[in-house]
Amino acid sequence: MIIAIEGEIFIKEPTRIGVKCAGLVYEVFISLQTSQQIKAGVGEKLALHITQIIREDTQMLFGFLELLEKNLFERLIKINGVGPKVAIAILSTYNPQTFVKIIESNDIKSMQRVPGIGPKSAGRILVELSGWSLDLAQEQSISVPKDSNLHQVILALESLGYKNDVIAKVTKGLENDEVGAMIKAALKRLQTL
Description:
With 193 residues, the protein is an alpha+beta fold. It has three domains: 1-65, CATH 2.40.50.140; 68-138, DNA polymerase, domain 1, CATH 1.10.150; 143-193. It is 48% helix and 19% strand. The chain has helices at residues 32-37, 67-76, 84-93, 96-105, 108-112, 119-129, 132-138, 149-159, 164-171, 179-192, and strands at 4-12, 16-21, 24-29, 45-54, 59-64. It has a five-stranded mixed β-barrel. Helix 4 (96-105) packs antiparallel against helix 7 (132-138). The longest helix is centred in the C-terminal third of the chain and has 14 residues, at 179-192. It is globular and about 50 Å long. The two termini are 27 Å apart. The model has no long low-confidence stretch (mean pLDDT 85).
């Protein structure tokens, strides 16, 4: 399972990006919100959190700069009738923080502004996500420069299966050093939790 990708931008379009990594180019679908946040151009380095979807007839990668957006996407696709395309449409229309407010206020009209979502779908999504937004708001989202050593440490800890709140605790105040040394320090901190 692919959980992150780092490489050179090969193709850049509003809703998809090609990332060249180890001689291969991976097609990664992104929201318009993520697309606007990506300042790097073709030929420049990029790191994304990935959700990989494997179906009988296709394999797709969806990329996110923020873990919060990735977690919201993964929660949305678990809702009956909401596939990856609708989830990306939601995340293209609203950033995660705005979407949480829509959930909390049960704003069905704002939900219907998303292309492909009618009144029934909007109601179902709001019902399915009610109560979940509190968990989302309490979740600690880790935001660091994508080219930093700390970002590499966070990706490594994610790949080992650690949750965001645990990663936030062990990386808080971590001294900037070589990536390997920083990972060792973070793993030592994990033993004290």
